[in-house]
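Researcher: Please translate sequence to C-alpha cells.
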Amino acid sequence: MPKQVGSYDAKTKLPEILRRVEAGESFTITNRGKPVADLIPSRSSQRLKAESAIGNILKSKKHRISDSLYTELKEAGRK
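Model: Translation complete:
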C-alpha cells in the first residue's frame, strides 16, 4: 500500500522520496488530503538492474581455469 505524502512535503523532501522510490517504495501525493498522483518505481530501472545482473552472471562464466591450475590450487590448499 503506497504511503501518502502531501504536495508541500513532496516538494521539500523530493530527493529523499526519490531515493525511497528507487529502493522500491511507492507514494501517493495528495493535495489538501485528496490523492492526485502516484509515485512508483520505474520499470526501466528494474530492467537495467536485471540486465546488469545477467551480464555479471555471463561474465563470471567466462572465467574458467585450466585443470592443471585447479590441481595446483587444490594441492596448495592442502598444505
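Researcher: Any highlights?
Model: The two ends are 57 Å apart (CA to CA).
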